[in-house]
Amino acid sequence: MKKILFSILIMFTYVNAIELGVCKGCHGRFFEKKALGNSIKVNHMTRDQIMKALKGYHDGTYGRSQARVMVNVMISYTDSEIRKMADKITKTYHIDVVRKQGKHKNINNKASNKNRIAKESLGNKKELSETKIGLRHNSLYEEAQNEGGVKTDYSRNAPGSSTRFERAYRDAPPMIPHSVEGLLPILANNNQCIGCHTPSTARGVGATPIPDTHFTNYRPHTIMKRNKVYKEGKILGKELANTSDIKIAKIEQYKKHITMGRFNCTQCHAPQSKTDTLVGNTFMPDFKDDEFKKNSFLIDRMNEGVK
């Protein structure tokens, strides 16, 4: 018995713009969810399967009673527009396409170029004019003509369609390679990062999984009781002079949620502007293994001398 596909793509906006954002409310950011808990995951469907479903909704020959909404939505679209929809979903969100995006690019290539660093090195210059001192490279007497610095550009591809950056150094917090439009600010009841980067979901959609360190609380256990602050069971200011007196706190590990000290993702992770640096970067990371460019092994370092 064939499995009936229904409610494949709910509530499309005007198709000429091929806007799929509204669909993701039910199908997920990467079309990885079962809409209404029933449909097949769209990111596992082939182009022909998507075409068949959409065309069937258009003709009123596809799906069951739950598909009435889709029939009404698709009826006004042409075959050409339906093909564009299927093409965009398949080329951008199909699970095989997302998984191939395991590549990482080095965003420091230009800044760390040896020829550039040698050219900019003050030690290689015999004398400097006043227009070469500093970063503006124009006369201080013409300050009014300065446009005011380098413009930033944070435009990036949507999550799931971008290429991850290499880490700046071993175990460095990875930078955000995709657009953060609509994802910020992170609030106590709204952290959209977790939806894709939770380990159980991340590998399936090609995202970087949240590491074990984020599920581990290394901070002293702190509670307030009868107007007194207890850290690791001791009263702060009486039995314990300072928090720094605690050499090694008891580690708490969580399975279902990250520790609150790691909840605000952007305190360490940040998007990168498409802007050339004003000066070269002489820092060169020493990765003993290429795996360190892509993954974090910080949990191993954090646990050294603790267990």
Estimated radius of gyration? 26 Å
Helical segment count: 10
CATH class designation of the domain at 15-100: Mainly Alpha
Major β-sheet profile: 3 strands, antiparallel
Q: Any guess at the CATH architecture of the domain at 15-100?
A: Orthogonal Bundle
Strand order of the largest sheet: 4-5-6
CATH level-3 fold name of the domain at 15-100: Cytochrome Bc1 Complex, Chain D, domain 2
Class per helix and strand makeup:
mainly alpha
State the share of residues found in helices, binned by percent: 10-25%
Distance between the termini: 55 Å
The proportion of strand residues reads 5-15%
**Mean pLDDT over the residues:** 78
What is the subunit arrangement here?
Answer: single chain
